[in-house]
Every structure is written in structure tokens, then in C-alpha cells.
């Protein structure tokens, strides 16, 4: 039997290009899409569902993908339409995980230490504080940072949701929403401020505290010293300057620093703006966040609040602890035998009412020029504060304190260096860690020190004597910083801060007279401006006062 074999018809591409001929295309292949390819390509797979990008060094397997071409060489026909491309984005968007974790309540109660309520922390618009631990919740102490950095095993953790620092009423009108990305682009160069008035009493800093180290630690003392954190509108000196039309804007350094460092904020805060004629006042709200200090606000896994009042490592308890540590430390470092300098008496102190001595505090009322045009007059008056003087009375110092709590607790920054063992030898690493975890707080402190014109910022390192005891602390070190150098090291831009202040002021001065509230969104990097009724917060104060009177009667 003879077998015959005949060759199939061969299509010759007269054009000379690699691929089928456009002029003599077989009928069975007509209208079938074709993707150009190079002769060097390996066409050994009909369908490849593998993602080459996953085989890079940071992807699956940690090796270079076998489908990757040499760098700088583009595949032939890459510019053609990818008719065979498989698009899977929409499928992945519909995928979600079931949250099996137990959610943590973000509603906090007033912390209690040692079974007794804490006392002495300033509260309210015209409140004052003493050295003893006490007070209410902390600065933005409700909840923690949402959307924390995810790691292996974190896929089933519930997303942390924080509460707003103020309850948003349905009748509040939203005027503006500004993303932090927009705020970060603002800039305004402002020269050094002009000193208008100086009040208060200030004493010398005790240089002996600069010699404290881990081998020579010193217990933190609880001192009863009266401190004031009066709001702008309740300041009698600002009221006099307002009557003289000395400026268009009035604020305190604690309120202004939060606004100037707003893009670093994670926790929610709110500032009350009151437009009176052509003047604008920046105030803190009654029982608001400005009387307390945050702890590890910017950490990847910050402390969370708890309904358990005995939890000393909750956000509210840590905030309260940090506040009274700062008040006591700033009073303890004062040299008692030094000369007290009193340019003008403390405008908030009344000898008939107060029994405790005043803390060393100097109030400088300074005017800054925020004008943009040469013929423009646009000034802001800020009440700034210094804690002591160093050597000469003109060399001002601000005193702040960082506190170390239980590193094993949530929010402990993931097994950081033990201060009592490593502060002397690895201080740089500890400072870098604090700058990362407390970026917003340290930036505000730097801005406040620069506004008052302080030559140095004394930073104390305060650790718990026992990680499980939040009432006894020891001073393990003190470090000195120049505020301008410290701000530069943290990449804090005063020009950006002044640009934010001027932008918000322009926005509010275009509005009619009345009361407004600027609120940091609790879960997103943005701020919102609301128009609120003139009695928006007065009703709450009255109700609270009535409740307290009823409790006293009972």
C-alpha cells in the first residue's frame, strides 16, 4: 500500500514582516485578533495567568520573574492594543473579609489611679491646674489611630474607629472641607514677633537637673503649684488689646500651635472661632482637648481607650498621666532660691481665692505681621508662655516632659528601648522613636517655644518606677534642645504653619459675625469648618452645672 503526503498551503508574506500577510489572509483566520510579537519571544504558553510583577524582589518568591525582559528593552508590539489582556480589578474590588475580631469600645471614662479619682488638672476655658494627678479624659483620648500599618496576621483585626472631639449637631452647617494635602502646600514668611506686654512671675531653671542620668535618677515630686490655661476670650489682657484694635486675630500659643501643626494630627480636636466685627478670636471649648497631652498619637499602633477605669494604659489614662507629669516636672526643675522676676502680676491669679503658690510662668503677648501686600495691615496677637529663665532673665526656657509607660501594653511602640537601661548610651535612637510616635505633640512644643522666643527647650525623660504603677515616677534624664534646630530636625515649617493660619483666617473673615468651629476629622486627614449657633456650647455647660448642683444636694 502506497502512502502519499501532501504539504499544506504555505502563506508567503510578501511584505517581509513577521506574522500573517494582510493581503492573503486565510478565510478561517479572518476577523481573529492578532497581537504582534518578536522573533525572540518565547511563545510556549497559550494562556498565562501569572502576574510577572509579583515575582519581583518585593513580591512572591522574592526572585526576579522569569517572564521579565531585560531592563530598558521594550517588547515588539507593546504599543498595540492588548486585546488578549485579562482585567481583574473589578473582581478584586468585590472581595471582602468577614470581621471576626471583637471590637474595642472607644468610649472612655475618667481614669482612676489607686482606686481614687485624680485631681488637679486644669479643665475648662478659664481653668487652672495643680501638680497633683487628676482631671478628665485626655487630648483626643477616645480611640486611636485608624488604618494602622498592617502586618502579618493583621488581616482580621477590626479597623479602629475614633470618635470626634466634639459632638456634631445636625443643625451645624458645613462651610468648608480642607484636606491635609492642601494645607501642607501653604506658605507664608513671617518675621519675629513684637513684644507688647509681659505678665507673670518667673524663676531660674535648676542646672542640677541637667546632670541626672540613668545611674543618678531622681524621683518625680508632686508639687501643688497653680497653673492657668485660660482661653483667649477670657483673657483680660487680650480683652484690653482688642478694645484698642491692636490686631485682627487673637489666640494663645497652645491653640495656635495645634492649628499650625494640623497636618501632623491624628486624633480629633476642635477650635472655636468667634467673629466680632472685623476681629477674630480663637478659643478652646469647655472641657475640650487643649488641657491634656497626647501619648503616642502618631504611633503605628497607638493606645486605645477603654471602659475599664482601672486600665492605666488606656489612651485617656495615659493622656492624664502625661499631663500631670508635665505640670510636676516643670515645677520641680525650678530653683527655689532663685530670684523671682515679675514684670506685671499674673492677670489670672487672685490672692483672695487661691491658697497654693503660683507656678513659674511668664506670659508674653506678642504681635506677628501676617500681611501679604505691602499696604496691608493684618496682625495676630498671641499669648505665649515660658517656664523659667537660664542665667540671665532674658534667656527664656520652656520645660516639657516625655513619659515612658509599659512597653508591653498596646501603644507601647512595639518593644522600644528601656529608658532606664539605654537612655545614656542610645539617646539618639530613643529621641528618634519619640519623634516618630509623638510627631504632632513634639512639633507643637517646638512651635510654642519658638513663638515665645525661648533659647532652649528642656526635655525631661520620665519613667514609671514600676510599669504597673502609674502614680510613682522617676526622672532618668534631661536633654536640652534649641527650638529652631529641633523644629528643623523634625521638618517643622513655621512658614507652612503661618500659611495655614492666614488661610483659615481669610476664610472666616469672609463670613458674617457669629461662632464657628473647626474640627479635625477623627478618621480622615482633613478638617471641616462649621457654622454653629451662638449658644452652641452654652446649653451643655448649663446642663452640666445643673447636674452637679443636683448631685451636691443629694
From TrEMBL:
Residues 289-303 are annotated as: RNA gate. One of its GO terms (molecular function) is mRNA cap binding. This is Eukaryotic translation initiation factor 3 subunit D. It is found in: Cytoplasm. GO terms for biological process: cap-dependent translational initiation; formation of cytoplasmic translation initiation complex. Residues 123-150 have a biased composition (Gly residues). Pfam families: eIF-3_zeta. It comes from Kwoniella heveanensis BCC8398. InterPro entries: eIF3d. Keywords: Cytoplasm, Initiation factor, Protein biosynthesis, RNA-binding. Component of the eukaryotic translation initiation factor 3 (eIF-3) complex. It comes from the Eukaryota. Belongs to the eIF-3 subunit D family. Its main location: cytoplasm. GO terms for cellular component: eukaryotic 43S preinitiation complex; eukaryotic 48S preinitiation complex; eukaryotic translation initiation factor 3 complex. The RNA gate region regulates mRNA cap recognition to prevent promiscuous mRNA-binding before assembly of eif3d into the full eukaryotic translation initiation factor 3 (eIF-3) complex. mRNA cap-binding component of the eukaryotic translation initiation factor 3 (eIF-3) complex, which is involved in protein synthesis of a specialized repertoire of mRNAs and, together with other initiation factors, stimulates binding of mRNA and methionyl-tRNAi to the 40S ribosome. The eIF-3 complex specifically targets and initiates translation of a subset of mRNAs involved in cell proliferation. In the eIF-3 complex, eif3d specifically recognizes and binds the 7-methylguanosine cap of a subset of mRNAs. Residues 1-24, 46-74, 97-164 are annotated as: Disordered.
Amino acid at each position: 500500500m502506497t502512502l502519499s503526503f501532501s504539504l499544506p498551503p504555505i502563506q508567503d508574506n510578501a511584505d517581509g514582516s513577521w506574522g500573517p500577510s494582510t493581503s492573503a489572509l486565510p478565510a478561517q483566520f479572518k476577523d481573529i485578533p492578532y497581537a504582534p510579537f518578536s522573533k525572540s519571544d518565547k511563545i510556549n504558553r497559550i494562556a498565562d495567568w501569572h502576574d510577572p510583577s509579583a515575582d519581583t524582589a518585593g513580591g512572591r518568591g522574592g526572585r526576579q520573574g522569569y517572564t521579565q525582559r531585560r531592563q530598558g528593552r521594550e517588547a515588539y508590539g507593546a504599543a498595540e492594543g492588548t486585546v488578549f489582556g485579562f482585567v481583574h480589578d473589578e473582581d478584586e474590588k468585590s472581595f471582602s473579609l468577614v470581621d471576626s475580631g471583637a471590637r474595642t469600645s472607644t468610649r472612655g471614662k475618667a481614669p482612676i489611679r489607686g482606686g481614687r479619682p485624680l485631681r488637679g488638672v486644669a479643665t475648662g476655658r478659664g481653668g487652672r491646674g495643680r501638680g497633683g494627678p487628676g482631671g478628665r479624659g485626655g487630648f483626643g483620648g477616645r480611640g486611636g489611630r485608624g488604618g494602622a500599618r498592617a502586618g502579618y496576621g493583621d488581616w482580621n483585626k477590626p479597623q479602629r474607629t475614633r470618635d470626634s472631639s466634639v459632638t456634631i449637631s445636625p443643625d451645624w452647617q458645613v462651610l468648608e472641607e480642607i484636606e491635609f494635602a492642601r494645607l501642607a502646600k501653604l506658605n507664608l514668611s513671617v518675621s519675629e514677633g513684637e513684644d507688647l506686654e509681659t505678665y507673670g512671675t518667673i524663676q531660674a531653671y535648676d542646672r542640677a537637673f541637667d546632670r541626672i542620668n540613668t545611674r543618678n535618677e531622681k524621683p518625680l515630686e508632686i508639687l501643688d503649684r497653680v497653673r492657668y490655661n485660660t482661653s483667649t476670650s477670657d483673657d483680660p489682657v487680650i480683652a484690653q488689646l482688642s478694645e484698642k484694635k491692636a490686631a485682627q486675630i487673637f489666640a494663645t500659643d497652645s491653640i495656635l500651635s495645634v492649628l499650625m501643626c494640623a497636618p501632623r494630627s491624628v486624633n480629633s480636636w476642635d477650635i472655636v472661632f468667634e467673629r466680632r466685627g472685623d476681629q477674630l478670636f480663637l478659643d478652646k471649648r469647655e472641657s475640650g482637648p487643649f488641657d491634656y497631652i497626647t501619648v503616642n498619637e502618631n504611633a503605628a499602633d497607638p493606645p486605645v481607650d477603654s471602659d475599664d477605669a482601672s486600665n492605666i494604659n488606656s489612651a485617656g489614662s495615659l493622656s492624664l498621666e502625661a499631663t500631670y507629669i508635665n505640670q510636676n516636672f516643670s515645677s520641680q526643675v525650678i530653683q527655689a532660691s532663685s530670684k523671682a522676676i515679675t514684670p506685671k502680676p499674673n492677670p489670672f491669679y487672685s490672692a483672695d481665692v487661691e491658697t497654693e503658690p503660683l507656678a513659674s510662668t511668664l506670659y508674653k503677648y506678642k504681635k506677628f505681621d501676617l500681611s501679604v501686600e505691602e499696604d496691608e495691615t493684618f496682625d495676630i496677637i498671641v499669648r505665649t508662655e515660658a517656664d523659667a529663665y537660664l542665667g540671665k532673665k532674658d534667656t527664656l526656657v520652656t520645660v516639657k516632659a516625655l513619659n515612658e509607660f509599659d512597653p508591653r501594653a498596646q501603644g507601647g511602640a512595639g518593644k522600644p528601648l528601656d529608658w532606664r537601661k539605654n537612655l545614656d548610651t542610645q539617646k539618639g535612637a530613643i529621641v528618634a522613636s519619640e519623634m516618630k510616635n509623638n510627631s504632632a505633640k513634639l512639633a507643637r512644643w517646638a512651635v510654642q517655644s519658638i513663638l515665645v522666643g525661648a533659647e532652649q527647650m528642656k526635655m525631661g525623660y520620665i519613667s514609671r518606677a514600676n510599669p504597673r504603677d502609674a502614680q510613682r515616677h522617676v526622672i532618668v534624664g534631661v536633654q536640652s534642645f534649641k527650638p529652631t534646630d529641633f523644629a528643623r530636625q523634625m521638618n517643622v515649617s513655621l512658614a507652612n504653619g503661618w500659611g495655614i493660619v492666614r488661610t483659615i483666617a481669610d476664610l472666616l473673615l469672609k463670613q458674617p459675625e457669629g461662632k464657628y468651629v473647626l474640627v479635625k476629622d477623627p478618621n480622615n486627614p482633613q478638617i471641616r469648618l462649621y457654622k454653629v449657633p451662638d449658644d452652641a456650647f452654652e446649653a451643655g455647660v448649663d446642663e452640666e452645672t445643673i447636674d452637679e448642683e443636683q448631685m451636691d444636694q443629694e
